Amino acid sequence: MELPHLDQTDQDIIKLLHENGRMSYAKIGELLNLSRVAIQKRVESLIENEIIENFTIRLNATKLGKVVSAFFEVEVEPRFVQQVGDSLSADPNVISIYQMTGPSTLHMHALLKDDAALEQFLFQHIYTLEGVVSVTTQVVIKRFKQGTGLEL
């Protein structure tokens, strides 16, 4: 993807940081034939202009004991969407949650320890929330790609 408001150097910097967020400015400069200071200034500008929102890491959920990856479509009475969304967002098992088209559908991804934890999450965390009408659950059996946000 090419972004017209970013020059090629900024796009190259973003691609390198996306591949390895720990890559030093000196290494990026070496790869792009620029000084460390020039790279640092460009990255600072990308941060100031909110092109780069933050730097993060991706953890291996399975190695940390979260072997069940599940997606949920949570139908909610329209007047409870914000309340249910806020409540589910606060749960540490929830990785992401979005309000989808249709006034009252929440799409959610959660990582859980095992099938018993999935059952507990459904019946003690989701179904007990006021306004939840129904829940459809799909468990991931194979991951082909996992994103970390927008890629250039």
TrEMBL record:
All copies of domain HTH asnC-type, residue ranges: 6-67
Record-linked InterPro entries: AsnC-type_HTH_dom (IPR000485), Dimeric_a/b-barrel (IPR011008), Tscrpt_reg_AsnC-like (IPR019888), Tscrpt_reg_AsnC/Lrp_C (IPR019887), WH-like_DNA-bd_sf (IPR036388), WH_DNA-bd_sf (IPR036390)
PROSITE patterns in the record: HTH_ASNC_2
The entry's keywords: DNA-binding, Transcription, Transcription regulation
Protein name listed in UniProt: Lrp/AsnC family transcriptional regulator
Native source organism of the sequence: Paenibacillus baimaensis
